[in-house]
Amino acid sequence: MTTGAIHDIGYRHYQGRRLGRSYLMRSLYVHNLRGAWGLGRPARAKVMPALFASIMLLPAAGSVAAVALAGEADALIPYSAYPTYLQPVIAIFLATQAPVLASRELRFRVVPLYFSRPVRALDFVLAKLAAMTTALLLLMAVPVTVLYVGGLVNRVPDAGTHLREFLLALVGVVLFAVVLASIGLVVAAFTPRRGFGVAAVIAVFMLSLAFVQIVQGIATAQTRFELAGWMGLLTPFNLVDAVQVRLLGAEQAGGAVPPGVLGGLVALLVCGCVVAGSIAVLYRRFRKGADL
What stretches pass through the bilayer (predicted)? Predict the structure, then answer.
């Protein structure tokens, strides 16, 4: 019979400095943000983010070039309208990258490994939401900044007004980013396979937009303009556009929006409910994944 032996190979308890909760959240945030842009992953994972970032920049660069050649400031795309004009590109970017952040750990069942260490479920969710929001913020804010800088270089009149519009547009971009990231992560978290996740996120945006446009068309034909405006709150891009138009004084870029300041306040409240509800759903989803 063979005999066994126990060998002391020198395992020791960790005696270094404990870095704490903030370090854990920062590490999770950076890891997920890098994943959203394909950093630290194979080269093919970087292709789609780079492609969409380039597409987002093209209209801004073309608008600046038109201002330079024509010498007319009106050729510059309105800052606050930029995300709405390019919503298909933003939606597809979100659809391709949200499953990377929301479903990989669930698909490979490694969520319990995260929670076996001192990582709170809420911290896990907030880090992912912050990373996806930052990725979308970069995607949208960089072209808007290019528009503003291009306008300054071409000496557009009334630089003070342009600065104010640019800063208000950045507020809108932040709101776009957090609302879209919340919706995209929730949808992707319930579709463990990436292909299904991509299709599901795109379907949510396309179907909601098609439904709202149909109802708004019928309401407008019946001269029920207020109903058409309120229905705009049912699609993410129109929802945020309503906040920009009614509370930030931006030009209307999407479909009909609710009337008056009250419409803007309701739209802002709906945005807050969407984000808070998404955090709650993601929390329960990842807690359930940890129990597998």
Answer: 50-70, 82-103, 124-146, 166-190, 197-219, 261-283
